[in-house]
Amino acid sequence: CTEDATVLLTSLQGQCIRFPVTDVRVFTGRNSVGVRGINLAEGDTVISMTILKPSQAEAWERTAYLKRRRAELAAEVGEAPEEMEVAEAEEGDDSQTLSDERYEVMREREQFILTLSRKGFGKRSSSHEYRVSGRGGKGIAAMAVNARNGELVSSFPVEDSDQIMLVTDGGQLIRCPVGDIRIAGRSTQGVTVFKTAEDEEVVSVERISEADDEEELPEDDAAEGANEPVEGASTASSEADGSQDGGSEENGGE
């Protein structure tokens, strides 16, 4: 990664923190104990680390960007991702607007973070919703963790053209397009991506990029489509309107 990149750590219990790569100094000895990335609550553990693009946006710029981006996405898909916003208490004044040039710069740097829970719920959120802070803090909410969702299993950046493969502790597999998973606010509950059985949990998630898919699949298989779940599974598109199994997003707060 580059020196101006940022690190995103996400925990089992739904907290995350984003800080500059330069906050982690280079150690001369491999036996070093390292430095604290996130201050975890008792019983919590880190489940993922990912490197994100640089972000030098001010709080008001992120608020203005997300407001404009939300309207843009609403025009594209015919409905607004209502939760794609940052809390006023966190960001303060939202009356300022971005220039077109600044908006394009922020859009170029925007990534979408896919976060998934053990109960098969997930959502994509703009990287601009994850503010950059100093390492070692308690962080902010990455996704609501509750009885419905369960704890988190994975969090990483994705592209619209990607697919993901999920597997449960019961041996069930599903492969689905990332584009079918709704864009929602950072601390929301998400929608059903994989309908698990009552005593079943998602244990692993793998991203399949478009390039990987082209290399691995024979042409005939690719033409048939990859979104075919195994017995007992369901896709994100079946719950995309959030109307089933409590699939509507609700803000979880920080």
Give a structural overview.
The protein is built from 5 helices and 11 strands. Residues 84-89 and 232-254 have low confidence and may be disordered. A hairpin with a 3-residue loop joins strand 1 (6-11) and strand 2 (15-20). It is 18% helix and 24% strand. The chain has 254 residues and is an alpha+beta fold.
At CATH level 3, the topology is Neuraminidase
Strand content bin: 15-25%
| Overall spatial form | globular
Gap between N and C termini:
29 Å
Under the CATH scheme, the architecture is: 6 Propeller
Number of strands: 11
Order of helices and strands: EEEHHHEEEEEEEEHH
Rg for CA atoms: 19 Å
Structural domain tally: 1
Average per-residue pLDDT, rounded, comes to 83
- What is the CATH class designation? Mainly Beta
Give unreliable regions as ranges.
84-89, 232-254
What is the overall number of helices? 5
- Helical amount: 10-25%
Q: Which structural traits does this protein have?
A:
254 residues; alpha+beta; Neuraminidase; four-stranded antiparallel β-sheet; 5 helices; disordered C terminus
Quick gist of this model?
This protein has helices at 59-77, 88-91, 100-109, 210-216, 219-224, and strands at 6-11, 15-20, 46-52, 112-117, 121-126, 140-141, 152-158, 163-168, 173-177, 191-192, 202-208.
